[in-house]
Amino acid sequence: MTLLDQSQIKGVFDLSNYRKLILFGAGLILIFALMFHKEDQLKELFQLAKPDHISVLYLRLLLNITPEDENLRIELANQYVNLGQYDNARDELNYLILQNGHTAIHARLLLLEIDLSDYFLLSNHDINRKTALERLQADITEISRISIPVALFPKIIKLSLELNQPSIAADLYYQWAGIDNEVNGKFEKLKEAAHWYIAAGLPDKAAGIYHESYELTEDPALARQFALLTLQTLQSAGDSKLAIGYFHTYQQRFPEDAELLDEAIGISLRNNAPEQAYQLGSIRLALEPDNPDQIRKQYDRALAIGKTQQALVLTQHLIEILPHDESSHERLAQIAEWSQQPKLAVMEWLWLARNRKDTTAILNALRLAIQLNRHNITVEMLEQLSGVRELSKEEMNNLLYAYDNMHNLSSKR
């Protein structure tokens, strides 16, 4: 090797050492600058900075200077997690867990997140997967039962849901709502609590929260929303008795609310209380007396409790509104027969025979016409029936008998 080559190599090494000195000096300057930053500024700096080994080095040096600084240690653990150095992160967090206060809770949550990451790496066939999940679920349950700082509620809720523990998330939302002084925030959290109780298969708890929210709010629109949610949730829970009790409370505040009445009627029917459904239906129909759907529902409820006369009146009213509705004419014909009013029934079957021209209507009109000696209707129906099929011997005899009686009546006149 020539002398020139040796001098060039030495120059390169000198330049490398020089750069190292510059970096080390800059690092020291940054460390001392960071020491004078406020805690929140320091935290913000490391949140914005891309995690790297230099950041870890700086934090490590700062901790050597102030080892009692728990927030610095949390940030160092975060940096380790971001770099995937989970064992180093666990060492820092295990140290913090031994301490008391909010930082220890934060450390437990970070450890739980690391363990959760490990859990997700397990294959579905791994025999340890179920045990690992149960341990994680036990951990989040234990954490949720201690005094939690407000700032950590979102993280614990998120972890609870990731661990398929919706009831814990619901409990936490309910606690959170209790300490939220902002009105909209409180009710949003109460809704979330109820939502996750339903997801956890606890609709009775959800209904209790909805009713509590109803009582808390002074906003009529919001109160009505909570009232409906309470009734719907109790209905799904199968507690119809409590639901009807709540409905009577809501009815005092919203006496003419159609949607609330519809819910209460549905609950009554599911609770096998048709009389109650009919009574509530009368109130509901009074709000929309000419609504065909409401009339149909109410005459069905009337029939369910044997009130055929009320059902008949309702069906007649429906025909006044929809004079060409074939199903209403057929229903009126049926109800008229059930209520022993064959004269009304025969006219309805006759209308159907003339307009719908089906065999069922013809035969029913014919049957009643013969019973009532309405010979003109008998003749008309048998003539119409003969256009569909050949008349039987009995039908021919009825036709002749009806003709004779019509002739006799005409002669007498």
Structure, described:
With 413 residues, the chain is mainly α. It has a domain at 342-413. 80% of the residues lie in helices and 0% in strands. The chain is built from 22 helices and no strands. It is elongated and about 125 Å long. The N and C termini lie far apart (150 Å). The model is unreliable at 1-26 and 34-40 (pLDDT under 50).
Strand content: under 5%
Radius of gyration: 41 Å
DSSP helical segment count: 22
The secondary-structure class comes to mainly alpha
SSE layout:
Blueprint: H1 3-35, H2 39-48, H3 53-65, H4 70-82, H5 86-97, H6 102-121, H7 129-144, H8 153-162, H9 166-178, H10 183-199, H11 203-216, H12 220-237, H13 240-253, H14 258-270, H15 274-287, H16 292-304, H17 308-321, H18 326-338, H19 342-355, H20 359-371, H21 375-386, H22 393-412
Provide a short characterization of the protein structure:
With 413 residues, this protein is mainly α. The chain has helices spanning 3-35, 39-48, 53-65, 70-82, 86-97, 102-121, 129-144, 153-162, 166-178, 183-199, 203-216, 220-237, 240-253, 258-270, 274-287, 292-304, 308-321, 326-338, 342-355, 359-371, 375-386, 393-412.
